């Protein structure tokens, strides 16, 4: 064991010596490994960061949450022309399900009203606000955190009272440092009293943020927009009780909706039941494909890097032929010579890989500064993967030069090196 530690130490010294004595040659040889590791880890880090950002934005909703609407989250086998004929879910269907659906923890009716709404308070205006028109139960489904005030209650939701809950950014735009609770704003051309302010969430690069949203009772928005198809996008959001089998819950939900709509046996559902778990699986599938594509592309850079390491090792064997002959004449075994050059190849490759990882780290810091609250993450797992891949590339690239060095005849090696 000690002898191999000595071999490792000597190999490390030889690798560092190669870096010092042949800087340009070694730099060009290691450049391929550096670029390859940079490409692979950059792709993995970017995809991991994207996935973390999306799942973090969805974390407020439980994966068991179900959303019923006439659209499907992912691809569908039903032709588009047929999907466009599906009716919207209705407020009455929400009320009926609320009364009759078993194993239900919470259910909310929501309207997707047109975006870009402006909210005004005196001379201040917050434009481009994303409005969530929901019933009061939505507070029990999504993990809202209020900085001050409260969410609207059942009487306010049923009557469609003019009340509103503002995101942190909107409240700052309208009221500055002062409290907005109890103040009247104008939305949809009507007055609404501010009853709650959400805690600051921070921006999400891909999925938006609650900071730029506002919530009003669904019936308040219904009085403005009505229920005309294509103007608003109604949906029913359901959360089953803990421990309930989701498949059984969805089967019961579908059957009740089919009965309400008078669908006959054999007819397809004219609605979609979307599961957040299914959406999460869809995201996993997309990020998995991105990882594979990135790894394939990066593999070509690593291939070039492997050739560079092999080249520098063949040169190293040639330069040290005389030394190899002397070592073998003094009793050094083939595996000793083999280990010596393999360790050197691995060390050189790992050095190139560490440079690539360092560049990824720098890029992630710079990129995070320009993307607000979106954070590029270089995880310990990705660092481990980068180091391991570098070592494997060094092992594969150095095996042939190391074997050729170990098989040299001592006499011929000394004579050739003289």
Strand and helix map with partners:
Layout: H1 2-21, H2 23-58, E1 66-69, H3 80-83, H4 91-100, E2 104-112, E3 117-121, E4 124-134, H5 138-141, E5 146-149, H6 154-159, E6 163-166, H7 168-175, E7 184-187, E8 190-198, E9 213-217, H8 218-225, E10 233-240, H9 246-261, E11 272-275, H10 276-319, H11 321-329, H12 334-370, H13 380-406, H14 410-417
Parallel strand pairs: 4-9, 6-8
Antiparallel strand pairs: 1-10, 1-11, 2-4, 2-10, 3-4, 5-8, 6-9, 7-8
Helix pairs in contact: 1-2, 1-12, 2-10, 2-12, 2-13, 10-12, 10-13, 11-14, 12-13
Keywords:
single chain; alpha+beta; 14 helices; 16% strand
Structural class: alpha+beta
Characterize the quaternary organization of these chains.
single chain
Compute the CA-based radius of gyration. 32 Å
Mean pLDDT: 79
Low-confidence parts: none
Separate helix tally: 14
Helix content class: 55-70%
What is the total tally of β strands? 11
How much strand content do the residues show? 15-25%
C-alpha end-to-end distance: 33 Å
Number of domains: 2
Q: What sort of overall outline do the alpha carbons produce when their principal axes are compared?
A: elongated
Largest sheet: 11 strands, mixed
> Can you write the helix and strand succession as a string?
HHEHHEEEHEHEHEEEHEHEHHHHH
InterPro entries: ABC3_permease_C (IPR003838), MacB_PCD (IPR025857), Macrolide_Exporter_MacB (IPR050250)
Subcellular location: Cell membrane
Keywords: Cell membrane, Membrane, Transmembrane, Transmembrane helix
Domain MacB-like periplasmic core: 26-255
């Amino acid at each position: 064991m000690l002898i191999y530690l000595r071999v490792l130490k000597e190999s490390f010294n030889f690798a560092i010596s190669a870096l010092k004595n042949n800087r340009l040659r070694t730099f060009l040889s290691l450049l391929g490994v550096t670029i390859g590791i940079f490409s692979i880890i950059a792709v993995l880090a970017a995809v991991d960061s994207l996935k973390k950002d999306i799942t973090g934005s969805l974390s407020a909703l439980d994966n068991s949450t179900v959303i019923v609407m006439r659209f499907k989250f992912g691809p569908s086998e039903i032709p588009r022309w047929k999907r466009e004929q599906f009716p919207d879910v209705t407020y009455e269907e929400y009320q009926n399900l609320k009364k009759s659906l078993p194993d239900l923890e919470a259910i909310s009716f929501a309207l997707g009203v047109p975006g870009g709404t402006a909210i005004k308070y005196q001379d201040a205006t917050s434009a481009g606000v994303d409005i969530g028109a929901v019933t009061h139960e939505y507070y029990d489904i999504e993990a809202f955190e209020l900085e001050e005030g409260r969410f609207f209650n059942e009487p306010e939701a049923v009557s469609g009272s003019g009340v509103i809950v503002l995101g942190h950014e909107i409240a700052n735009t309208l009221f500055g440092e002062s409290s907005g609770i109890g103040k009247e704003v104008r939305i949809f051309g009507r007055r609404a009293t501010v009853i709650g302010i959400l805690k600051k969430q921070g921006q999400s690069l891909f999925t938006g943020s609650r900071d730029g949203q506002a919530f009003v009772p669904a019936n308040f928005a219904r009085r403005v927009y009505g229920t005309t198809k294509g103007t608003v996008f109604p949906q029913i959001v359901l959360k089953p009780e803990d421990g309930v089998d989701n498949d059984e819950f969805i089967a019961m939900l579908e059957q009740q909706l089919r009965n309400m709509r008078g669908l006959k046996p054999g007819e397809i559902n004219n609605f979609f039941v979307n599961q957040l778990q299914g959406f999460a699986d869809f995201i996993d599938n997309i990020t998995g494909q991105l990882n594979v594509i990135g790894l394939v592309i990066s593999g070509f850079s690593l291939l070039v890097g492997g050739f560079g390491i092999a080249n520098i090792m063949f040169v190293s064997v040639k330069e040290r032929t005389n030394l190899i002959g002397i070592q073998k004449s003094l009793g050094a075994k083939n595996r000793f010579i083999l280990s010596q050059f393999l360790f050197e190849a691995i060390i050189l490759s790992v050095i190139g890989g560490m440079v690539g990882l360092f560049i990824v780290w720098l890029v992630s810091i710079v990129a995070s500064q320009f993307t607000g609250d979106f954070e590029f993450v270089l995880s310990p797992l990705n660092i481990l993967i980068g180091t391991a891949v570098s070592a494997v590339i060094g092992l594969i690239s150095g095996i042939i030069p190391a074997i050729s060095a170990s098989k040299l005849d001592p006499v011929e090696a000394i004579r050739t090196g003289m």
